[in-house]
Amino acid sequence: ILVTTHSLPGRQIEKVLGLVRGSTVRGAPATEDLHAWFENMVGGEIPEYTKLLAQCREQAIDRLVADARSRGADAVIAMRFVSCEIANGAAEILAYGTAVKLKG
């Protein structure tokens, strides 16, 4: 169970297991980056970057879930994303939250 809230309606938290996270660092392939640069010149959405970032978020979530499972968690509450530029053309996507064990 992954939620952005600090609780789960109808469920009681038995134990807080701590911070869990998953991240990925990606750069756009040169051909996509060049195509995106041209699209940026005329404005609007840049589909290559939209797709790349969606893939990054999914990989970060998968790694977050793996971290939570390795700690025996039933859920992750207060899940968030953060991103930052690591180098020109490369960015990190980090998913983080609090792993919890639920009663019952």
Compact description:
This protein is of the alpha+beta class. Helices cover 36% and strands 39% of the residues.
What does this structure look like?
With 104 residues, the chain is an alpha+beta fold. The chain is built from two helices and three strands. The protein has a three-stranded antiparallel β-sheet with strand order 1-3-2. The longest helix has 24 residues. The two termini are 14 Å apart. The mean pLDDT is 88.
Q: Calculate the mean pLDDT score and round it.
A: 88
**Strand numbers in spatial order across the main sheet:** 1-3-2
Residue runs with pLDDT of under 50 for 5 or more positions: none
- Biggest β-sheet, characterized? 3 strands, antiparallel
Tally of contiguous helical segments: 2
The arrangement of helices and strands along the chain is EHHEE
Whole-Å distance between the termini?
14 Å
